């Protein structure tokens, strides 16, 4: 599972697609992923030409680490969006679990640090259970539920921290090591992110319950008639997303060492943006986690490249916005062209 | 399988009142009744969508509780619903095998096998649809075929078919019947629902008739004939099904010249006079609906002109078309004709919301009074006009769509599949209404896949094949043979 560390790996997207021997329908997402890889490559190339230091070892490490959290969050978010839901609370969940795992390790420095990771992921999963239960069982729209829990989880975070913060000095070295060590030059958090992407991608592609998530997002009423346990699946997607946000929180704590109650504030929109730029349809049913991950990498690379290119940071936001509009416009164009091709195909086929 | 004294009500509406029926292995049991008679509720009780209020379902003499569709599927029930229930974003093969995908090593989905099995299923049905293409963009007929393939793939012991043929052409229906018969011979119990009597009599072994949610009669098909069944369904004699009035055509109201839309239809020209009913016939997918959509301006055409009473319409502007006196009753009433969540009265007045409002304020009372007269004229059956239109039966929904467009006082009525999925007596009502409208000087363009309707109602028949008009037949020359020849693109009839 240790894929090439390069951010420009098209393999995850193309491998399963080829196995499916797909034509019309698999071509679209693949086109999106290739486009993203090209966009990232172009951006890196231009920035590198402008300032060769951009590809120094330290700088690449920073970019990878920066992309890690967003990528993990985008993978979880994509899983939820595919079911025609959305989870706006991920920034708060990340903050809560970062604080949870850090303060657990501060309180029990002698316990193995793996328990700290467990605590963080469990906190995230618990948040996912709350979201999932409200959405799937109480049938409240996800947008409203997670907008509410965004504030609730953040409030809990503030209450728990009550103004205090955890500093790197309070945390065991082994734990902080997660954020600092590398395997074959790749930072450990980036490796974890790659494993998450591949595992989630494989699950959504090759397992029944994974495919059912797409079915639910594509046509909820038909999914019910097909005997798919719709509520259970949506619940599961939220718990998965919560756990991943929890994992991201742990990695945040391990990387930065200092954690207070504001960690992750405002991240949710960037996460949704990464998924949308990555080709995950906001109304569910289509898109891949590979695309979402590449979207996250692209957004992080933009964040890193614009200062190097000495572009005013005011433009940074505008560029991200433009990118979202571009992505949506591209989707529309491809959809229209695909529809025309399919219709023409039908006429010949008959 | 048996239904024993099953009853179900939705709010104040009693949809099903103590119905009992048996489905036996190796038999095709037809269920007939007017729209709103409760047939769909029967289907949903068997499919595990609705749990009956009283009564129960038995399988092999054992009482079973089918509380979810999954329960019903486990019990060996497969259902082909009237409206296709596909996932537009997923591939055809995935649509067929969703939740039952063939698994390989480590419980992973075996895509190659799934693809092969899909091709086998299509081979049995004698059609070819690319298993890898997404379901979106498929015609209704192809979607229906996928539903059939889905049911077929389940090897069901009980197969429920709720108007499976509504969108299919003649040859596809024949193939489906062959498959249905082979399933029956293999011991499946089949419940067949249709509004086409020729199909019911060709396929079924026994017929149960329902009316107003209750049981009316049950008898072997051999002991019944069409007239008897119709009388039982309606509970009264149906006056003639096609009450065509002879009208002397007036001035030309609609002229279509060289209309072309890329990949849909080419060089379509025709004209319609006041008082005329012109039918657009042809197989599903021939481009008929696309033509009327372009005439009305929902879709832009690429070249050609549309003139109403001599004035050329701008392309792609439905509002201008409405102003010029055009009305379009679309094919798919759920998606295109109605806003299902809104009330009957609001739907019926949607086209006139400005005319009905005072100083920009639209009151419920104004909507209600405007709707009431149309509801009475068209015999719309609704508990309250403020109920959501989704609660009505198919036939009544169609009447609401008609009311909505007739209320604009159109001079040219474009109507696409006016009687799809509606019952005999409503059909007769719709036909009578169309006749009356033509007699009052309206020009009517009717797209229809039902040959008896085309032949019975039209003054002239335009036949389309693969996007082109292949024949224009006056009433006297139109026969089943001549229309089918032209519709299948054979030359004999094109002359």
From TrEMBL, chain A:
The chain crosses the membrane at residues 34-51, 63-81, 88-107, 113-135, 142-161, 181-204, 234-254, 266-283, 290-308, 314-334. GO terms for molecular function: transmembrane transporter activity. GO terms for cellular component: plasma membrane. It is found in: Cell membrane. It comes from the Bacteria. Keywords: Cell inner membrane, Cell membrane, Membrane, Transmembrane, Transmembrane helix, Transport. It is a multi-pass membrane protein. The keyword Transmembrane helix applies. Residues 1-24 are annotated as: Disordered. Part of the ABC transporter complex LsrABCD involved in autoinducer 2 (AI-2) import. Probably responsible for the translocation of the substrate across the membrane. The complex is composed of two ATP-binding proteins (LsrA), two transmembrane proteins (LsrC and LsrD) and a solute-binding protein (LsrB). This is Autoinducer 2 import system permease protein LsrC. The lineage of its organism: Bacteria, Bacillati, Actinomycetota, Actinomycetes, Streptosporangiales.
């Amino acid at each position: 599972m240790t894929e090439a560390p390069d951010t420009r790996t098209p393999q995850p997207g193309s491998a399963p697609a080829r196995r499916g021997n797909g034509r019309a329908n698999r071509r679209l997402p693949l086109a999106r992923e290739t486009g993203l890889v090209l966009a990232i490559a172009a951006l890196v190339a231009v920035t590198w030409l402008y300032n060769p230091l951009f590809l120094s070892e330290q700088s690449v490490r920073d970019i990878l680490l920066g992309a890690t959290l967003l990528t993990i969050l985008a993978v979880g978010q994509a899983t939820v969006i595919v079911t025609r839901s959305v989870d706006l609370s991920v920034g708060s969940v990340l903050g809560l679990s970062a604080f949870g795992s850090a303060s657990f390790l501060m309180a029990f420095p002698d316990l193995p640090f793996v328990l700290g990771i467990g605590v963080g992921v469990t906190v995230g999963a618990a948040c996912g259970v709350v979201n999932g239960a409200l959405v799937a069982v109480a049938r409240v729209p996800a947008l409203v539920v997670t907008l509410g829990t965004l504030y609730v989880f953040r409030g809990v975070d503030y209450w728990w921290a009550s103004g205090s913060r955890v500093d790197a000095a309070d945390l065991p070295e082994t734990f902080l090591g997660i954020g600092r060590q590398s395997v074959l030059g790749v930072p450990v958090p980036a490796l974890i992110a790659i494993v998450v992407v591949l595992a989630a991608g494989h699950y959504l592609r090759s397992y029944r319950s994974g495919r059912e998530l797409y079915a639910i997002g594509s046509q909820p009423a038909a999914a019910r008639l097909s005997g798919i346990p719709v509520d259970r699946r949506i619940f599961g997607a939220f718990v998965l997303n919560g756990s991943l946000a929890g994992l991201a929180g742990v990695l945040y704590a391990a990387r930065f060492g200092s954690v207070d109650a504001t960690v992750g504030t405002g991240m949710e929109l960037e996460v949704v943006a990464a998924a949308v730029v990555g080709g995950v349809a906001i109304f569910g049913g289509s898109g891949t986690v590979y695309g979402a991950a590449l979207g996250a990498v692209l957004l992080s690379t933009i964040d890193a490249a614009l200062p190097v290119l000495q572009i005013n940071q005011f433009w940074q936001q505008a560029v991200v916005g433009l990118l979202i509009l571009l992505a949506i416009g591209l989707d529309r164009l491809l959809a229209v062209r695909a529809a025309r091709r399919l219709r023409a195909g039908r006429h010949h086929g008959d | 399988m048996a239904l024993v004294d099953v009853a179900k009500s939705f709010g104040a509406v009693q949809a099903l009142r103590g119905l009992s029926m048996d489905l036996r292995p190796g038999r095709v049991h037809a269920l007939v009744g007017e729209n709103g008679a409760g047939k769909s509720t029967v289907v949903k009780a068997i499919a595990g969508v609705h749990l009956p209020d009283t009564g129960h379902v038995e399988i092999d003499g054992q009482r079973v509780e089918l509380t979810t569709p999954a329960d019903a599927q486990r019990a060996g029930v497969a259902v082909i619903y009237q409206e296709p229930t596909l996932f537009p974003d997923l591939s055809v093969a995935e649509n067929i095998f969703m939740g039952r995908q063939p698994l390989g090593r480590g419980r992973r989905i075996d895509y190659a096998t799934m693809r092969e099995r899909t091709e086998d299923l299509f081979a049995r049905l004698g059609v070819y649809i690319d298993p890898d293409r997404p379901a979106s963009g498929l015609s209704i007929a192809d979607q229906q075929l996928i539903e059939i393939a889905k049911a077929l793939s389940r090897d069901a012991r009980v197969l429920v078919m709720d108007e499976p043929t509504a969108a299919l052409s003649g040859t596809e229906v024949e193939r489906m019947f062959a498959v249905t018969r082979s399933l029956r011979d293999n011991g499946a119990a089949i419940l067949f629902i249709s509004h086409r009597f020729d199909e019911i009599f060709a396929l079924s072994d026994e017929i149960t008739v329902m009316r107003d949610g209750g049981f009316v009669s049950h008898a072997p098909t051999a002991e019944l004939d069409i007239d008897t069944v119709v009388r039982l369904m309606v509970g009264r004699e149906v006056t003639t099904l096609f009450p065509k009035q002879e009208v002397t055509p007036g001035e030309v109201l609609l002229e279509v010249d060289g209309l072309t839309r890329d990949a849909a239809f080419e060089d379509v020209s025709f004209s319609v006079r006041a008082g005329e009913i012109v039918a657009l016939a042809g197989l599903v997918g021939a481009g008929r609906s696309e033509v009327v959509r372009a005439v009305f301006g929902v879709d832009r055409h690429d070249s050609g002109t549309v003139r109403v009473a001599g004035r050329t319409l701008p392309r792609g502007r439905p509002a201008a078309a409405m102003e010029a006196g055009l009305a379009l009753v679309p094919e798919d009433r759920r998606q295109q004709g109605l806003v299902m969540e809104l009330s009957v009265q609001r739907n019926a007045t949607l086209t006139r919301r400005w005319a009905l409002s005072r100083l920009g304020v639209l009151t419920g009372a104004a909507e209600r009074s405007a709707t009431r007269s149309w509801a009475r004229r068209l015999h719309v059956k609704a508990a309250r006009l403020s109920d959501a239109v989704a609660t009505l039966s198919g036939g009544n929904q169609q009447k609401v769509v008609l009311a909505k467009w007739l209320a604009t006082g159109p001079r040219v009525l474009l109507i696409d599949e006016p009687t799809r999925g509606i019952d005999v007596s409503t059909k007769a009502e719709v036909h009578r209404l169309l006749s009356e409208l033509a007699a009052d000087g309206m020009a009517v363009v009717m797209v229809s896949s039902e040959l008896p309707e085309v032949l019975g109602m039209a003054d002239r028949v335009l036949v389309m094949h693969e996007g082109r008009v292949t024949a224009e037949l006056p009433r006297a020359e139109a026969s089943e043979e001549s229309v089918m020849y032209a519709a299948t693109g054979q030359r004999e009839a094109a002359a």
